[in-house]
Give the backbone structure.
Amino acid sequence: MGIINIMTTERIFIGWDTPVVEKVREFLIPQIKEREPVDLSATLIIVPTSEAGRKLRHELALYCSLHNTTLLSTTIVTPSFLFTNSTEKTKIPPFAVIYGTWVKTLTAINPQDYSHLFPLSSRITDNNWIYSTALELIDLRETVLEGGYLLHEAVKILGNDFPEIERWKELTQLEKLFITNIRRTGYEDPCEAKKNAAVNPCLPDNIQRIVVAATPDPSPLALRALDSLAKKTSVEILIPAPESLKAMFDEWGRPLISEWKKFPLEIPKPNINIHIAVNPADQSTVLINELMRFPAKFAPSEIGIGVPDRSVIPHLLDDLKKIMLDGFDPAQIPLQKHRISILFSSYAEFITNPSYKNTSLFLRNADVLAYLKSEQKINTVILLKELDEFQNTYLPLSFDNIRERIKKDDHFVVLKKVSDWLTDIYQAYEKSNNPIHAIRNFFMAIMKNRTLSEKKEEDIEFKEAAFAFDEALHQTDETLGKLEIKDKKTIFSIIYACIKDKGYNRRKPAGSVDLEGWLELLWLDSPCLAITGMNEGIVPYSKMADVFIPDSIRRKLNLPDSEQRYARDAFITTVLIKNRLSENKRIFFICGKKNANGDPIKPSRLLFQCDDNQLVERAEQLFHDITPSRPVPPASPGFLLNPVPPQNNPLPQISKLSVTTFRDYLTCPFRFYLKHILGMERLCDDKQEPDALDFGILIHDVMRILQDVKTDSADAIFSSLEHETKKIITERFGNTPPIPVIAAMEAAIKRLQKAAEVQAKLFADGWKIYKSELPLKAEIEGVTIIGKIDRIDINEKQGKVRIIDYKTADSPTNNLFKEHLAGVPDNAKEKEWRLYSDPSGK
């Protein structure tokens, strides 16, 4: 171990022959005595990530335990602690206030005054741009702050000759407005506060030294804080590399680009330890196959798995179970994926925009259905059935349409009761003086009977998510008071933003294998390490087409760019390899040829950083054609239908058939069985317009009045038909029917105009309507056949009788079963006519 003195900062090279976490522990506890507690309370330990801190804390505690002693106290933090642990941190606003202030700032401006920042402002039709822009500006300022700058300072660095300087100047104008508005809330600008804290950092009184442990890429802002602290506190930089390579690192232990771009990465046995796979699922399969090659060599606790590409994780979680291993993703679960957030989302959409679609999605939420079933004693199966039928019948556009139409239709009993409940929910929010209280009351009502058990993982996660959601509501409540926000959409957007900013942890199952991110791999001590996702853009990471900060700007603002990330990842890869060179250890890499979307991706450049004499062979290895290790199964139905009913539910006996139903049987007995015996229906609640059946029923209903219209004037007949059509539409859809209904009505009127001309000619030729809607009834083989004849005409002059069956389509509108019906004779309709003319069927 060598030490190089640079002012009051020391670089300490701890080597890379053993895992980093062990080397750091050896440095922090060089000697230990049994039963004598270890006290590290005077040392501030800085590690790159929270997960690295967890691993180091576990290693320290385990080491003390093995020596029959305890670890009294230790402070392990990430670099951001240096500029957030300020005595004035109470003045730093919570996220909700930051976001809400940006929303208020953007709401007050005219986007056309910022033409370089919002070039399409003339096309803006709503305020949705405000919510997305607020989040973008928060991220932008945080990113620029990593370099130690505010936006107005960054503009000075970029200079007037910078191509997009006008856009950045407009950003500084917005930043100025934001800072003014945030100070009016009683808080300081968070970025300004962090920057000032980095210049004058504060440490807990007990801290006497700082140890920066294996942190290869601290932000420039964190380094500014360290530089300030180094003038009054001992700072030690632990670098997991041999001292002989000291020229390859800067004074803060960061890998130098010029050195690490040319340093060869000597992967042992590359033909065995570098693999390619077709896609994320195949990467998982390759990894499992490699682990199974030596099943007895490594215990589950000795296996480490790296997943820089998170699309591999779902496949690994499933595949590890096949070899009796449990995988565990230690990353926080985004709160927005939890059922609480999903319920909130459906509630918010209903409250802010009670369209039929949002109303339907709200009612179909699993927690809402459970509440309706348990508390309101609603049969939810009937509810969903009525909801489908109601939508298909009335094509409602909004919740108001539902309330208006359901009052006049006694058929939808359950839906009417639920409609009253929805009205109460909506009114409770509208009438509340505090919208956050209304939201809390709704959730308390929905969840009040939910019991939680500390033994159930789902309940533990629910509790964690509930605390995070409650904090989001609390922050929003404070924000509404400070900013005096009343707008409904803005209130919910603040809660949405807080939810997006939060996550929760799940408990790690005993004996499970962690699926680690890239930066955490440096702290793994597993003898066997498998790394998936070794592809360009992932390792090293690169953000494609950054709108505000491409690499050219990053370099000017002292921010890490793609070259610096490459040097960092080349160093990390080298350390991972050097940790596992002995015969009883192994490391192997897997890269994919396609991503989760099926798009081609390239192997990581790091895999090509080898000796020149190996380059051709490496390229052939990584680019040759392959077939999936696990063949993709052919497409198949999501489930197989078993049409045979259970024995305890025998088939109903058919005693009555309509003529149309009988035609269904003649057309296809199997579909007849599914539809009329099993009662299967093809219903949904996203019907957009009247279908062919609706159109036919409308025409039939209108044509009934012809029996009372006795004239040969086509205009008079048409006037009656048109009036009846509009009357029927209004009775069914109200005074403002949906546009598709209006279009269908106009199409019907156009056809009826032609029908009026035909009817006038028939009347002039002596044809008179004898009967309309004449019931038909007969019995065949013990089955009653019922039907209805649309119309019977009599011509007394000619002594003839005519049966008319109205048809509104010249050809079938649904060819879904064309192949299935290919062998059926095209005479089903002819047999239907025979039933009309001869009900006995003879």
